[in-house]
Amino acid sequence: MRTVLIIPARYHSSRLKGKPLMEIEGKPMVWWVYHQMKKSSKVDEIFVATDSDEICAVCKEYDMNCVMTSP
Q1: Both ends of the chain: CA-CA distance in Å?
Q2: Other CB atoms closer than 10 Å to residue 44's CB: what's the count?
Q3: Which residue would you say has higher pLDDT here, 60 or 14?
Q4: Which among 45, 51, 49 is positioned nearest to 5, based on CA atoms?
Q5: In the chain, how long is the greatest CA-to-CA distance?
Q6: Under a CB-based contact definition with an 8 Å cutoff, are residues 40 and 59 in contact?
Q7: pTM, whole model, 2 decimals?
Q8: DSSP readout, 12-61?
């Protein structure tokens, strides 16, 4: 059985708009979450699920799997 991890990433959060793209030590937060999850030997594949074109573009820039969702 394959294990797929989905990281939800909303740009238009009510508390902190754009949080997944905020930089931490020069990388967007979503990059840090994605790479922490890659360390797990139990995960076969990881996807960032977002309704934001901006987040999807950053995922592509950093070679992270991304799927677009409905708002």
Answers
A1: 30
A2: 11
A3: 60
A4: 45
A5: 37
A6: no
A7: 0.89
A8: S-SSSTTGGG-EETTEEHHHHHHHHHHT-TT-SEEEEEES-HHHHHHHHH
